[in-house]
Specification:
466 residues, mainly alpha, two-stranded antiparallel sheet, two-stranded parallel ribbon, 19 helices, 6 strands, 62% helix, binds arginine
Length: 466
Amino acid sequence: MAKLWAGRFSKTTDETVNDFNSSIPFDNRLYPQDIEGSLVHSEMLARQGIITAADRDQIHSGLKEILQSMDAGEVEFDPAQYEDIHMCVEQLLTERIGQAGKRLHTGRSRNDQVALDMRLYVRQEILEVRDQVLHLIEVLTDVAEKNTATIMPGYTHLQRAQPVTFAYVLLAYVSMLKRDVRRLENTLDVLDECPLGSGALAGTTYDLDRHFTAEVLGFSQPCANAMDGVSDRDYCLEFLSDLSILMMHLSRLSEEVISWCSWEFKFIELDDAFSTGSSIMPQKKNPDICELIRGKTGRVYGDLMTLLTVMKGLPLAYDKDMQEDKECVFDAIDTVTMCLKVLPDMLSTMTVLTENMAAAGRKGFINATDCADYLTKKGMPFRDAYKLTGGLVARCIQEGRTLEQLTLKELRVESELFDESFYEAVDLLNAVKRRNTFGGPAPEQTEKQIAMARDFLQEHRKQDES
Ligand code: ARG
């Protein structure tokens, strides 16, 4: 089949070049956006008197038929026939409606066309991913709500540090994910400029109404400089970095879950439907989902690095290198959406082993700071209280005891300041309840954090309705 650009050429394309050059095997997923852009472009051409209303009508019905055939999977996206999705749609249109089809590309280049298609696609996918993140926030908040009094050790350096609750830990992830939502929404804002009408690189001699096409396609404005319009992929990079940070968060959460369901911790048990077995070890129940999320994070980082590297040396305006923007963006989207599909159900079906968490809390002297604070509040300088408590801990380790197992008599040998109220002070639930500063783990505070998360969900879902 002759290429759309065959006029200048006396030879047909070598077959290996067809395969090498063609993007249709992967950019075919842009067909809804490509057709949407063409519908609006031809509408504008007719309004501006550049094509007739009759041509526009034919173009519109032709494009709608092509959309239906593509939706039905009837079109074969063959690289030997079509270089990319833009040429495919245009060729099919001309085959179907003849002359009028040849007028569609007036005042347009594939460079502004592909720039538009990618923007429309990324915009849609940002909303998709954002909704999935909102759902994950909801699930984590629901689990947190049931566990505001579930005591567990909080860790630093993976050493038991201070008493917290399971809700508090989950709400830390909620805070991270809230930032992810805001980052995605910021990218939506950044991409809110329409490149259609930029032409190949230097605008066009036709009297296009770029404000009309921008508005109908849901953008606030046309991009200010046409050369930038065809060569800007910043929004793809921003999206990929949003997704990379999001995956980093999911990977950290996954890592925690992997630890929590090991026998060494046994803080949670994953549902059978969300774990896998071993082919040889009958006792095994593996957290494969979490490990895959952790592993796939590397892929998404790679996608970001791919596009950063593709873009770094490109002279203005369009260069074919930019065709390489697609597979990395698509791969990142597919990977992230897959992870976000499976993770919430895995979390909502897990069993929280509260007694094991509490037992771990009782070991490890996580109330040592509370002991020091107890003495400090009774008048001892903090550094002295810290040192005295360190001595008590060392003694307990030697004797295989815990701080609360020391008798008042033993304690008073160390300091007269100890009295009965010590035992109340180092009780773990009390110790958590007293960590009642704003943003802290006390149930009163985590309940506030839960309320804030619910408000956030409401606010960000409402934006869709408006
Ligand atoms: N398939 C191309 C891409 O994805 C479309 C733009 C081609 N433009 C060109 N001047 N060859 O980037």
